[in-house]
Structure formats: C-alpha cells, structure tokens
Amino acid sequence: ARSLPAYPAALLDPDSGRKRVKFADSMGLTLTSVKHFSSQEEPQIPTKVLSRYKSFPPQQDVLGDLCQNFRSSLDMDRLVACFPELRDADRRVQELRVCLEQVSITQFEVRGQIRVRRGCKVREVGIRYTFNDWLSHVDAQALPVSPVEEPGSEARFSFTVYTPPFMDPSSAVHFAVFLRSDQGEFWDNNLGQNYTLRYRSMPDHGFVSSVLHAT
C-alpha cells in the first residue's frame, strides 16, 4: 500500500518538486513582491484595489443614529396630565377618606403625594397604575412623608412611579390612589375616570417638570 504524498501536487514546484508558498494582502490579492517605501515617497494604490474598496457599502453610525433618535424622543414627547388641576383637597379627603393631593411630572418619573383623613387606622396607602390600558397593573406602596404625631391627625404619603423611556407616543399612564384601613378599602380614582397622563409633542425649549397640587 502507498501512503498519500506529504504535500499536494498543486503546492509543489513542477521543476524542483519543492513547496510553493503564495502570499496575499489584506484585500485577498496575490502579493507578488514586497516593496519598502521611504517616508518621502507616497505609495500608489493599484486601480483594481481602489475600485474593490469603493464597492464596499458605506459604514453607518448605528450608535450615533440611536442616540440621535433617543434625544429626539426626549425633545418631542412629554407626559402631560389629562385631568384638571387638583383642588378642594379638604373636601375630597373628607368624602373619600383618601385623595391625591399633589403630582409632579418629569421626563422619567411621576411623583405624587396622597392625603389620608383623620381617624383612619391606616394599614396601607398606595397607587395602582398601568402602562397598557389595564391589561395588567402594579400596586406600589406609598411611604409616609413624616411620622404621625397624634392618632387623630391627618397623614400624608408620597409615591414615585418610573416611566419606561421608550413608550409608544400613543400610550398613556393611568393610575388611582387607595387606602386600606380597618374600616375597609377606599379609592380616589378621579370620580371613576382614573388619573391619566398622555404623551404630547412639545417644542424643545428645555424640559421643565410640571407640578399639580390641591389648593
């Protein structure tokens, strides 16, 4: 039996039987000779190499485009309140036992303050919100603004909701505030309509947070 040759015939010089080695440049073209250039001599690029280089598609700055789109969305879309200015907190807290007293809106979050009527034995105060028109929702607990010194005094609680940075411009944030106490569960849901924040296109004059508070 005969073994295979150590080198394929295509790599052997037909005259001497020795191996042939071919070099290629970065473009995949055969490198026939090597020339050293001095710093004063400007190298000439072959026409074939230059035309192949120009045939490549231009590189796109994907990251730059993404940053520009993100900045544009921040410049144009703002969450704005779709409910009247909060008023008559004293009356509403007496009727509902809990009421939304203040809301502030920034680019990435919604902060608010909830007021609870005197005499309520609070178990939990919080906010229920949704980003998808109540297909799902989240209950977030509100935290006391300051310790309640007297059992019969009113209490205030604060909450923060972080909004997604890439929400669809047609989407909205709906929410209501609640009180769970020994007397039962009570809601302030804007007379059954819920509190709603929607995206609106705004001119780029620098973002200023909006604040709504009860008087």
TrEMBL record:
InterPro entries: CBM21_dom, CBM21_dom_sf, PP1_regulatory_subunit_3. GO terms for biological process: regulation of glycogen biosynthetic process. Pfam families: CBM_21. Gene3D superfamilies: Carbohydrate binding type-21 domain. Residues 90-198 form the CBM21 domain. One of its GO terms (cellular component) is protein phosphatase type 1 complex. One of its GO terms (molecular function) is protein phosphatase 1 binding. This is Protein phosphatase 1 regulatory subunit 3. It comes from Nothobranchius furzeri.
